[in-house]
Structure formats: C-alpha cells, structure tokens
Amino acid sequence: MRGVALLGATGSIGDSTLSVLELHPDRYRLEVVAARRNVPRMLEICRQFRPPLAVLTEPAAAAELRAALGAGQATRVLDGHQVLEQVVRAAEVDVVVAGIVGAAGLASSLAAAQAGKTLLLANKEALVMAGALFMDAVRQGGATLIPIDSETNAMFQCLPGYRCGEPAAERGVRRLLLTASGGPFLRTPVADMARATPDQACAHPRWVMGRKISVDSATLMNKGLEVIESAWLFGLPGNAIEVVVHPQSVVHSLVEYCDGSLLAQLASPDMRVPIAHALAWPERQASGATALNLFDVARLDFEPPDRAHFPCLDLAYRALGTGGTACAILNAANEIAVQAFLEGQLAFGSIAEVVGASLDALPAVPAENLETVLAADAAARRIATSQVQSRC
Ligand SMILES: NC(=O)C1=CN([C@@H]2O[C@H](COP(=O)(O)OP(=O)(O)OC[C@H]3O[C@@H](n4cnc5c(N)ncnc54)[C@H](OP(=O)(O)O)[C@@H]3O)[C@@H](O)[C@H]2O)C=CC1
Ligand SMILES: CC(=O)[C@@H](O)[C@H](O)COP(=O)(O)O
Ligand SMILES: [Mn+2]
C-alpha cells in the first residue's frame, strides 16, 4: 500500500486522481487531501475517502470544514499555506500528486522533491518558474519525478528506462514533438478572438479542465509553458522541442530519436490515463478510461502553429532562451493577465500584450535561489498589474 498526498484535490486533476484511486483501494491509501477553500467538495471527499488529514489553506474555509465534519471525525483538518510543505514530507506519504494550479503550488512541489518522494507533477507552473532549482531538488532529494501533464507523460512513456533530469540526448533523443490541440480558437479570426469571452475561452474542444489552464490552452500559453516544462524534464534546449498542432488530441506527443524513429503515445483524451500510468510506474494498471478506437478516430492531422495568431508561444520560447528568472516573469505576468481576463478586466487579445510588456520591462537575472525567483515573481506581478490597469 502506498500513501498518497493529493494537492489540489478539489480541482480537475483532483477528480481524475480520485477516480483512479477508487479503482485500486488495495494499492493506495489516501493520506492527505489539500485545496484552498472549496468546502462542499472537500466535505464529499473526506466523507467518501476518510483520509487522516485534510488541508484547506484558507483558515475560514478550514474552520467551516471542521464544523461540517463534526465530532469524532476520521479526518483532522489543518489550515495555512506553509502546512502543505510539512504534510508532503510526512513518513506516511510515499506519493505526492501536485495538482495545485499556478505559483501557489511551487513550495509544496519543491518540498516533495527535497523529501525524496515520488512526485506526480501536474503543476507545470512550478517547473516553469524555478526549473533549475526544482531539478536540483529532485536530484539531491533522490525524488522520482513523473510528469502527469498529458504531453510530458507521453514523452516519458516514449523513453523506456529514463529518469527525469537525465539529458535525454544521451538516450539518442534528437527532438521532442509536443502536440497542441490548438484550443477553441484554432480557426477563429484574430479580430474575433481578441474579443472572446471567458466562457468561450474556457470551452476547450477536447479536455475538461480548470479555468486557468483552459485560458492558457486558448492563447497557446499552455503549450509555451509545456515547452519550458519539457526542456527541464528532459534536459533539452528550446530548439529541440517543436510544437505540432494536432486537433484530434489523441497523439499526446512524440519523441524523435537520432536514427529517425518517432515514438508516440496515443490514448483517449482522458487524464486518468497519465495519472494511472504514473501511479503504477514502472508497472501498468487500469485507469478507467475507454481505450482509443482507431476506426472512430479514422484520421490524424498535424500542422505547424500559426505563431502570429498565438503570440504567447513565441514569448515562452523567448523566456526559455533568455534563461534565469525570465520564465518566472513570464509565468507570473501570465497568471495576472489570465486572472484579469477571467474577471472581465482585460480583453483576451491583451493577455499576450501584458506578458510581453512585463518581459520587456523586467530584466532577467540568474535564478540563483528560491528568494531570487520569488522576488522576480513578485516584481512581475506588480508590473503586469499596472499593465492591466493601463488597458482598463
Ligand atoms: N486539468 C487538467 O486536465 C490538467 C491540469 N494540469 C495542471 O494541473 C494544475 C491544476 O489544474 P486543474 O486541476 O485544471 O485546476 P483547477 O482549477 O480545476 O483546480 C485547482 C486546484 O488547486 C487548488 N488551489 C488553488 N489555489 C490554491 C492555493 N493558493 N493553495 C492551495 N490550493 C490551491 C484549488 O483549490 P480550491 O478548489 O479550494 O480553490 C483546486 O483544488 C495546473 O497547474 C494545470 O496546469 C496539467 C495537465 C492537465
Ligand atoms: C490535458 C493536458 O495535458 C492539457 O495541458 C492539454 O494539453 C490542453 O490542451 P492544449 O493545450 O493542447 O489545447
Ligand atoms: Mn498538457
């Protein structure tokens, strides 16, 4: 039995993970569930799975959950953000599923890596912000890092025997082909896309996900973040990672080897597949997903991304090329711009402008330690906020 800490339990990754855990009660025990403030969903999870520990980082929400669970509860409820770093280190926890969205997930993901846990990483923003520090923590902590982002998990599956952090080139890898659905605006004229509403942007054609990542898919910033994520996971430069638009979203990515072989991973677009894979690795187990029917899929299309239509992609390549704190600046400015868009304060078409202006305004410095990264994150949030205000 492996003890699991599920961070971001009330979200989309949380739902998919719980669905896999339900299939295998003999293999996993849920030790910790954590989220920010969603009391009704956390209450359901605690009643169904009876984990020993639940964390809601917002104290008022935690108090509400404690009261709702009542006396004699199986689950102890903690609050505060720093407690996440402690609970992932607990001896009962073998596996940490990092499913918190955004920079809020960095400290707990890093703590799990430092503590040598098996870390199933969905929270790509953590790796984007602090890639070098993160991979150092994985190596020094002796952690097993397995990506559950569908594309990087696909690449990992196409690299048998590989451990994340090793240079993939030493395994004969020439390039990574990172697939992108193209999002809801793949064929939408730029002028219409610029005026898109949050609900239009969140209507992803293939995946049901949280609103922040859905907007990122619509701008293609999600793909940009995944370029940076792949670079750190597989030890490759940006020019060895090519984005390929594949609207069917059944080829989840490909690895090109030096002999000209391309290995791909295919599956229905269902996050239970990478999550079940990573939980069982190096074995296999049922995920609950329906196997892909190739006769239903019938055809697979691939095309290059239109970089003028989706400027966020080039901004991400630029930040990766600059290095240092540039990716932390990119990520923070994007989080501010997406939040402003979702709150109706920024036009969809201005998300890329805010990120670009923030990169222009803030010089990148070497990302020597966590304090430097967090300082860049904070400075980028201030600049991006004023960029949003200047467009209101
Ligand atoms: N959804 C998907 O299919 C995929 C997601 N990912 C990545 O996984 C991560 C999660 O995405 P997704 O599940 O879609 O997002 P959701 O918005 O559905 O869920 C976010 C989760 O994070 C929690 N959370 C948010 N802020 C905080 C905070 N400050 N402290 C603690 N918990 C917090 C939320 O808690 P609460 O509900 O209480 O606010 C919720 O449990 C993202 O990094 C995303 O890029 C990667 C690949 C696929
Ligand atoms: C499910 C998953 O991994 C998401 O990151 C997904 O990739 C979003 O799709 P696109 O960003 O390709 O539209
Ligand atoms: Mn993805």
What does this structure look like?
With 392 residues, the chain is of the alpha/beta class. It folds into three domains: 146 residues, NAD(P)-binding Rossmann-like Domain (Rossmann fold); 141 residues, no CATH class; 69 residues, Rna Polymerase Sigma Factor, Chain: A (Orthogonal Bundle), CATH 1.10.1740. It is built from 17 helices and eleven strands. The strands form two sheets. It has a seven-stranded parallel sheet, with helices on both faces. It has a four-stranded mixed sheet with strand order 9-8-10-11, covered by helices on one side. The longest helix is centred in the C-terminal third of the chain and has 21 residues. The mean pLDDT is 97. It binds NADPH dihydro-nicotinamide-adenine-dinucleotide phosphate, 1-deoxy-D-xylulose-5-phosphate (DXP) and manganese (II) ion. The site of NADPH dihydro-nicotinamide-adenine-dinucleotide phosphate has 26 residues, from helix 1 and helix 6.
